[in-house]
Amino acid sequence: MKKSWVVLLLGAAQTLAWGGSYYLPAILAPAMARDTGLATSTVFVAFSCAMLIAAVLGPRVGAAIDRHGGRGVLALSNLVFALGLALLATAHGPVLVFAGWLAMGVAMGMGLYDAAFAALARLYGKEARGAITGITLIAGFASTLGWPLTSAMQAAWDWRGACLGWIAIHLLLALPLNLLLPRAGAREVVAPKPMPSAAVRQTRRSAILMAAIFSVSSFTAAALGAHLPALLLAVGATPAAAVLAGALLGPAQVGARVLEFTLLRKAHPLLSAKLAQVSHPVAAVLLLVFGAPAAMVFAVIHGAGNGILTIVRGTLPLAVFGAAGYGARQGMIVAPGRFLAALAPAVFGFFVEGYGASALWLTIGLSMAAFIGLYWLRVQPESEEAPR
Questions:
Q1: CB 271 within 8 Å of CB 379
Q2: H or E segment at 49?
Q3: CA angle centred on 330, ends 328 and 334, rounded to 5°
Q4: What is the pLDDT of residue 89?
Q5: What one-character DSSP code corresponds to residue 357?
Q6: What is the pLDDT of residue 199?
Q7: What is the DSSP string of 185-228?
Q8: Total-model pTM
Q9: Are residues 246 and 126 in the same domain?
Q10: Which pLDDT score, from 0 to 100, does residue 300 have?
Q11: Which domain holds residue 159?
Q12: Same domain, yes or no, for 222 and 338?
């Protein structure tokens, strides 16, 4: 099967996977909380638990994809998504709400970007960079599709019916898309070559450093995703302007991914990482200096950085460490970031409550530290990473 077809199939499956999991609480949480006798915040706590479960499972899922390929794992994730949604649809109290979201967390660990990246690395080795960019470009529209679709199903059938609708989508659309992916069995998995102890230590240091850098990115993205409207209001933006600026995040992310897919595709992923990592500090300083008039500029620059960082999370480890053992290593590298992403809305909320827009100095400082950290990574020459 041609790589372009694999990108289309997996990109479509990822769009449905994200739309039917990660983007559900924003629409369904209030009604779910009301009908199950919970506070809305409690439903989001259950969702945070799902993200933590996904983080814990990441290395094991990656190792399984390294051994067997991603087709089966991704297809199984659709069945687990359906199970989690079924538990939620039948929930009348906290037990099934938490059980449903924990099952969703298992499915998210098996079926979202990191598993898809590992599947592509298993299929194409170091040539997977373009495919990774391609699926994130397609799935960048997950919220654009998911939120209106979930809202429409909720309006027609209530939130329980919306869960049942997403079960049908996972089983009738996403599952067949994943099953159409090529098997990876014909491609031999090459074990990493034995390295001198000094090289092993350097590899370990690079992996730890990369995990710290990605953790900062995950924390910042999750924190701003939860508190962007409040921050924009704090600098004097009107509610309408805050909503409009927030709406620019999605298009900015997709636009930046197009840039990475075209102009930056032959550059080393480290260059993309540096450009993306510095985007948030630049945008945040502009917002703090100029206030409300810079709200839309902030949203576009910050969103563009997030869009490229999603790609870099898959392509930079591939460029630095190679394809052998990619899935397990990738799971270990991104796990701390997933934990921080689950905690970020609550932690950053305390700073916003206490300091208003000045809370951005926290994310500015963290992002600049991560940007500097990128200069400490040892990488191969750019010419070796250009697609062939």
A1: no
A2: helix 40-68
A3: 125
A4: 96
A5: G
A6: 64
A7: TTSPPPPPPP--HHHHHHHHHHHHHHHHHHHHHHHHHHHHHHHH
A8: 0.80
A9: no
A10: 93
A11: 3-179
A12: yes
C-alpha–C-alpha distance, residues 191 and 248, integer Å: 44
Q: Does residue 293 sit in the same domain as residue 329?
A: yes
What's phi and psi for 150, nearest 5 deg? -65, -40
Question: CB within 8 A of 187, min separation 6: which ones?
Answer: 122, 123, 125
Q: Please write the tens of the pLDDT for every residue from 1-17.
A: 788 899 999 999 999 99
Residue 90's alpha-carbon distances to 97, 164, 167, 373, in angstroms, are 9, 10, 13, 47
* Phi, psi at 63, each rounded to 5°: -65, -40
Q: Which amino acid is at 379?
A: V
First to last CA, the chain: 18
The answer on 91 and 12 residing in a single domain is yes
Last residue of a domain, one of 149, 179, 209: 179
| 93 burial type by CB count under 10 A (0-12 exposed, 13-18 middle, 19+ buried) | exposed
Question: What tokens appear for 7 in the block?
Answer: 């990108």
Per the CB < 8 A criterion, the answer to whether 8 and 138 are in contact is yes
- 313-351 burial, b if ≥16 CB within 10 A, otherwise e? bbbbbbbbbbbebbbbbbbbbbbbbbbbbbbbbeebeeb
**Same-domain check for residues 33 and 175:** yes
Is residue 59 a part of any domain in this protein?
yes
The count of residues in the chain is 388
Q: What residues of the chain score a pLDDT lower than 50?
A: 186-191, 381-388
Q: Please tell me the predicted confidence (pLDDT) of residue 185.
A: 59
Question: What is the C-alpha to C-alpha distance for residues 288 and 302, in angstroms, rounded to an integer?
Answer: 14
Assess whether 116 and 235 both reside in one domain: no
What tokens appear for 36 in the block?
Answer: 């199950």
- The candidate with the shortest Cα–Cα distance to 237, out of 247, 249, 227, 245, is 245
Q: What confidence score (pLDDT) does residue 194 get?
A: 58
Cβ atoms of 89 and 158 closer than 8 Å: no
Structural domain includes residue 174: yes
